[in-house]
Design goal:
This protein is an alpha/beta fold. It is about 35% helix and about 25% strand. α1 links the parallel β1 and β2. The protein starts with 11 loop residues before the first strand and ends in an 8-residue tail after the last strand. It binds S-adenosyl-L-homocysteine, iron/sulfur cluster and FE3-S4 cluster.
């Protein structure tokens, strides 16, 4: 451990905290990979850090509050140790820009998600007299589409295995930005215009990850199923084409993709999920509301009937598919009646699970400009809890149907409740996911981590299947 008086050639220490979506987790991985080249190593101890980075999210007020309070907590640290460099990265950096430097003057650098390639340079300068502390991309209204798009740079060159969820699971970005402009959502303004990455770049990254031992790849995009790329030879690539190509890569045993936009759930994609056995039979397709008037206000561009048609088509095409959703309760103008329509959609749809959020007004969005945030906080909370309870009861019923069946599980590691003992290779409580993304917990040797096993399910809660390993044979590893 670093102590005062350690030799000066010792590595610099980097402390990083990440909030927000998987896109942010991936961005943090890439930033860390780059900083390692500059001689940094990760530390969990903020007191020991030479650089402290927060990769931030702006999707709800709560996410921003968390970062401002973390910044408040390290103010004293910076006073005691002025040489420590503090950086705010990501969506909040893009949204609030120099406001962050005013509100938290001890912050050295503020870097938006489209400028992360500049983090090393700005960190190095933070110690000198160079006044550059801010690197953000252009606003949507700030020039031609080409100029704005170019200012949100892809930052996907390096990979950092230590930052992954596990050594054999990795994310690949297939799309950046978003052009849907749902009226409540800040993402299109902080992540910039929608851009699909070239298939060659995506496939090269997938091969590299497979060579490094990655078995599960999750493709990321705000509306991942809107992926569309016109190659120089004129060929149009869709997400289904990308899935088929990744499926051919030796070593890749499972492929997932998030998040789907309901209108772009095309038949070619559904058929790819049906026909490619290593693609998870799991689709996250947020509905957001079960009331047509609210959907219209949200500018989601579909009706409840269209969503349900998509859901029926999905289930008809892919037997056994698990679908999950997101909902916002308490959006501007959501009456008790409109909320009840959402309740009924949840009851009819039988999602595997749903993420339920209380509407949080975001400055700069259309909803914030046009509609009063008129559902009281307490009522938002009540609707949130009630809807969650309804979904939980459905998830429990659904999971209980798995009791007595055998599932294939990719083992991720010791379960959170299990105590890990150094160098111990006995029986441990392990966790992993089924092909339809259900969590399974079972006893087994640590050596199973990263492997595919068959688990006989004996019990179930709303979020977890509990079982017993039926065979420790690796059942789905291609030779
Ligand atoms: N691109 C994804 C998800 C984006 S953000 C998609 O389109 O589905 C993740 C979720 O946060 C959204 O699905 C939505 O349910 C929720 N969300 C977004 N903005 C919000 C806001 N202002 N208040 C509350 N929840 C919000
Ligand atoms: Fe936000 Fe809508 Fe884009 Fe999703 S599709 S990121 S909710 S604007
Ligand atoms: Fe948050 Fe940015 Fe993701 S606002 S949800 S971290 S794209």
């Amino acid at each position: 451990m670093a102590e005062q008086g350690d030799p000066p050639h010792q590595k610099k220490k980097l402390y990083i905290e990440t909030v927000g979506c998987q896109m942010n987790l991936l961005d943090s991985e890439l930033v860390v990979a780059r900083l390692r080249q500059d001689g940094y190593e990760l530390t969990d101890d903020i007191q020991q850090a030479d650089a402290i980075l927060y990769n931030t999210c702006s999707v709800r007020q709560h996410a921003e509050d968390k970062v401002y309070s973390a910044l408040g907590r390290i103010k004293r640290l910076k006073e005691k140790k002025p040489e420590v460099a503090i950086g705010v990265l990501g969506c909040m950096a893009q949204k609030d820009q120099d406001q962050i430097l005013r509100r938290a003057p001890h912050v050295d650098i503020v870097v938006g998600p489209g400028q992360l390639g500049r983090v090393p340079e700005l960190l190095a300068r933070a110690k000198g007299d160079d006044p550059t502390r801010l690197a953000v991309s252009r606003a949507r209204t700030d020039g031609s589409l080409e100029t704005i798009t170019a200012s949100f740079e892809t930052y996907d060159a390096n990979r950092e295995p230590a930052m992954r969820p596990t050594p054999f699971q990795a994310f690949i970005r297939v799309m950046m930005g978003c052009d849907k402009f749902c009226t409540y959502c800040i993402v299109p303004s902080v992540r910039g215009p929608e851009q699909s990455r070239p298939p060659v770049a995506i496939l090269a990254e997938a091969r590299l990850l497979a060579d490094q031992g990655v078995k599960e790849i999750t493709l990321l995009g705000q509306t991942v199923n809107s992926y569309r790329y016109r190659a120089p030879d004129g060929r149009i690539w869709r997400l289904s084409d990308i899935l088929a190509k990744i499926h051919e890569i030796e070593g890749i045993e499972r492929i997932k993709f998030i998040t789907n936009f309901p209108n772009d759930m095309t038949d070619d994609l559904l058929q790819a999920v049906r026909d490619l056995p290593r693609v998870s039979r799991y689709l996250h397709v947020p509905a957001q509301s079960g009331c047509d008037e609210i959907l219209k206000r949200m500018k989601r561009m579909y009706s409840v009937a269209a969503y349900e048609e998509m859901l029926a088509r999905t289930r008809e095409t892919i037997p056994g598919v698990a679908v999950s959703s997101d909902f916002i309760v308490g959006f501007c103008g959501e009456t008790q009646e409109s909320y009840e329509k959402t309740v009924r959609l949840v009851e009819r749809s039988r999602f595997k699970n749903s993420f339920i959020f209380k509407y949080s007004a975001r400055e700069g969005t259309r909803a914030d400009r046009l509609y009063p945030d008129d559902v009281p906080e307490l009522e938002k909370k009540r609707r949130n809890n009630e809807l969650l309870a309804i979904q939980t009861a459905i998830s429990l019923e659904d999971n209980r149907e798995w009791i007595g069946r055998t599932v294939e599980v990719l083992v991720e590691g010791p379960s959170r409740t299990s105590v890990r003992r150094e160098g111990w290779d006995g029986i441990d409580q392990l966790t992993g996911r089924t092909s339809c993304d259900r969590i399974a917990v079972f006893d087994g040797s640590e050596r199973l981590v990263g492997r595919m096993v068959r688990v006989a399910i004996e019990d179930a809660s709303a979020v977890t299947l509990f079982g017993r390993v039926e065979t420790t044979e690796v059942v789905a590893t291609p030779a």
